[in-house]
Amino acid sequence: MSIGIFNVPAVRNEPVKNYAPGSPERELLTKALEEARAKTIDIPQYIGNQEIYSQNKRPISPPHDHQHLLGHFHEGTAEDVKLAIDAALEARKSWAVLNWEQRAAIFLKAADLIAGPYRAEINAATMLGQSKNAYQAEIDSACEIIDFLRLNVNFMRDIYSQQPISSDGVWNRMEYRPLEGFVFAITPFNFTAIAGNLPAAPALMGNVVIWKPAFTQVYSANVIMKVFKEAGLPDGVINMILADGPVAGDIIFKNPDFAGIHFTGSTKVFQTIWKTIGENIASYKTFPRIVGETGGKDFVLAHKSADPKALATGLIRGAFEYQGQKCSAASRAYIPSNLWEEVKKLMLADLQEIKMGGVEDFSNFLNAVIDERAFDKITGYIAKAKEDNDAEIVAGGDFHKSKGYFIQPTIIRAHKTDYVTLCEEIFGPVLTVYVYDENEFEEIIPIIDSTSPYALTGAIFATDRYAIQYASEHLVNAAGNFYINDKPTGAVVGQQPFGGARASGTNDKAGSVLNLLRWVSPRAIKETLVSPLDYKYPFLGGQ
Ligand SMILES: NC(=O)c1ccc[n+]([C@@H]2O[C@H](COP(=O)([O-])OP(=O)(O)OC[C@H]3O[C@@H](n4cnc5c(N)ncnc54)[C@H](O)[C@@H]3O)[C@@H](O)[C@H]2O)c1
Ligand SMILES: N[C@@H](CCC=O)C(=O)O
């Protein structure tokens, strides 16, 4: 029973701590890293009120130090998936009817726990488990997840406040019911914030969730579950299963109570999921919501009027931060002939000073890629570029995996516009540059628009406003997040709602009203205050 119309706490984005030498946050984080490295932990599945440990233990190691053991996670089975569905549906009976302010309070508390007592622990887990440096962890596993949790509470209230008009004698109302069934959240390895938000957003709107994190993100996923529990999330509302994707999918996508998928990951996996849902469509009680944010082949277009230093900096940060493992990473750049030599010189100078190594040494800008499979895939593109006549390596190109999965930040110059590394998502520290005739700006734009099937992020660097307007208009469908004189990464919740269309997903903009609307099934209610007692229209002699 809600007995008040409540406001929610005002939000601003969580300030990013800087971890400068001698700062208190650096001291806490260093200690958390040391403590985590000094022990091994066992991570169970969290299903209903149970922590499930299995016989199938899988090791967890830092990608930059793969001989070191951080612990194990306990892989789940098809039986565990069924158990999770039962636990979720049982929890739904109470959760779906709990007042919204109670749900809000849980997630606001989770945000405060991460902002305070859990900040160092979740950042350390992200640094060690996913090989992120302190800054990249801070903007992800602290600030972005906190922003998701707090801002979503505000968006929820905005949604609930959206009410229809009423005519004389009538009171119309709108209820924003949770979906009838359970939601399946499948999350990628590269952002702890996404892993937390994908189950939390539907749960905030009153849904129950089965969450399957990527195996390579389980170490920080475990901290998220600890936070949710400490924040008071009732058992069974979010169930973390550690079954393999296809094993889980095989059970979940055939279940009649499956009501929605909240996915972030590669385009291919999302296409498989969508197809499976389509094949099973007649077996569901309700049409499932399908929300998926997927891959990118994000472009940077420079005009001949661009500032070369701003462009070079945007490319270095956009392409190589977190080893290029962001769906938003600048992975293809179109540079006019008048700027190329200078931009190349500036990038090479930056790359000379950039250090790569473990996350424990805060002076490393770059760390390792996530696992051996990713290492082999990324280096395959580099090895091919070394041999191809259509491409040349401008910077980097070396790699080694004896201690960790390290790949030098690599710049490839392609000599044809459909060279493979200009078209396919590589998801690693590889930037491909195509140098175009400075007088053919308008001709290069349709090539950018059609070179890859994706449309996630893109950027224009120019000082000429006509060029900026031209690119904005002619690349209108090429990116869901478009940047002017900035790198195409680093969207902030509430400031640049994130997501793309075409092969990049359903563009439901995580961390916005648009996303939360996918997790409700509104019921419109009309109440007539004094009901008519006569069927006749006035012209028939009625009232
Ligand atoms: N658009 C975005 O907002 C966004 C954000 C982050 C990452 N990404 C994309 O994610 C990808 C990188 O992440 P990843 O390597 O973890 O992606 P991935 O597609 O390999 O895995 C994503 C998740 O899907 C699961 N999965 C894999 N096969 C499955 C199946 N058959 N059925 C059910 N689940 C299955 C994985 O275990 C994991 O949890 C990149 O393509 C990147 O662009 C997109
Ligand atoms: N939202 C993040 C990217 C998430 C995908 O990996 C950014 O804007 O850089």
Automatic annotation (TrEMBL):
UniProt name for this protein: L-glutamate gamma-semialdehyde dehydrogenase
Enzyme class: oxidoreductase
Natural source organism: Dyadobacter chenhuakuii
Keywords: NAD, Oxidoreductase, Proline metabolism
GO molecular function: L-glutamate gamma-semialdehyde dehydrogenase activity
Alphabetical list of PANTHER family matching this protein: DELTA-1-PYRROLINE-5-CARBOXYLATE DEHYDROGENASE 1, ISOFORM A-RELATED (PTHR42862), DELTA-1-PYRROLINE-5-CARBOXYLATE DEHYDROGENASE 2, ISOFORM A-RELATED (PTHR42862:SF1)
Entry annotated with the keyword Acyltransferase: no
The protein's annotated pathway: Amino-acid degradation; L-proline degradation into L-glutamate; L-glutamate from L-proline: step 2/2
Family: Belongs to the aldehyde dehydrogenase family.
EC number in record: 1.2.1.88
Catalytic activity: L-glutamate 5-semialdehyde + NAD(+) + H2O = L-glutamate + NADH + 2 H(+)
Presence of keyword Lyase: no
